[in-house]
Design brief:
Elements (H helix, E strand, L loop, with lengths): L6 E3 L5 H21 L1 H12 L4 H4 L2 H14 L3 H4 L5 H9 L7 H12 L1 E7 L5 E9 L4 E4 L7 H6 L1 E4 L13 E4 L6 E4 L4 E5 L4 H4 L21 E4 L7 E3 L5 E3 L4 E4 L11 E3 L5 E10 L9 E7 H10 L4 H8 L14 E5 L2 E4 L14
Antiparallel strand pairs: 1-14, 2-3, 2-5, 3-4, 4-8, 5-6, 7-8, 9-10, 9-13, 11-12, 12-15, 13-14, 14-15, 16-17
Amino acid sequence: MSFPAPVRVYGRGTMDLHELERDRQRAAAARRVAERTASRREHAAALAGPGGLTAADTPERVAKRIDRLTRYYDDELVAQPPREPAKLLEKIINTADFVGARFLDAGVAAARAVGRVNIRDGAGQVSGFGTGSLVSPSLLLTNHHVLPDAATAATSVVEFNYQDGIDGLPLAAVVHGFDPDRFFVADEERDFALVAVAASPAELAPFGYNRLIEAEGKAIIGEYVTIVQHPRGEKKQVALRENKIVDIPDRFLHYAADTEPGSSGSPVFNDQWEVVALHHASVHAPERPDLGGFVNEGIRVSRIAAFVREHPLPPAQRAMADAVFNSSERIEVIAPLQELQNGHVTITVPLEITVRVGAPA
């Protein structure tokens, strides 16, 4: 099958091992972007119109996003929010007051978990680079086309702290191999690989991790995302916030961002530094010169999480997989949206309250 536009897919391995995988990802990403051209135009028009953010996405996704944001920003603005969802979203998403020291501090912590994946062949020679990030005390997430199988993972390594410090001098890089015999789950369709790092939790603790959140409501069309990456295998860099989500197909996010080869496997964050997608491709989109002529694609984290949850695993590996998820978070809007008209939203939510009584302090 041929496509009218070229596509770049990030993350390189040896040609013999990865050529078919890259070709499949190119074809799939190009097809999705081509099929969604009309949708992207509709979204752009909606964002520029009176409804803004609430008009560009589905009422259900908007309701879930509002619910999530109002629980994240526990301050005066959200304690007494405006009645109109559009005004609330505009205040939170498009107001610089919410991108201050808190945003930067949280970003530094989130970025520590991101490392450069050095793809090595059986002889130990580096054949390419990708990006990966810790999503539990022992597991790293990257693309399937970066680590397509356990054999490739067994010979490859991840390099943390490959970046400059605040004084402009390189930090001391920390390199660890992978242990796919302990844990390795990958899926070509969703283009992800989840693999154990060959290091103890104590050795990985300084880098932290960013759990995968199963709940939806982490992003809507028109919001901005940030990508922490190792473009072309270079030192860690950040495509900071000015990367707008332009479309949300079923399993994917499409967004405008500055990415390069080697960025495959990078975590895509929202403004609350929650991982919303796993970056994997950039597709030529000539109808959007405002996006630089390219649309980037990432796999939605909720779809990766669902696959891992349902994938059969032995007990020890199931325990490791469960540690990936934000199990402490239980609040989620699950009721259907009843109405989103004239700037008003009505949600019917069944209420369940658990009270835990402990010894007084």
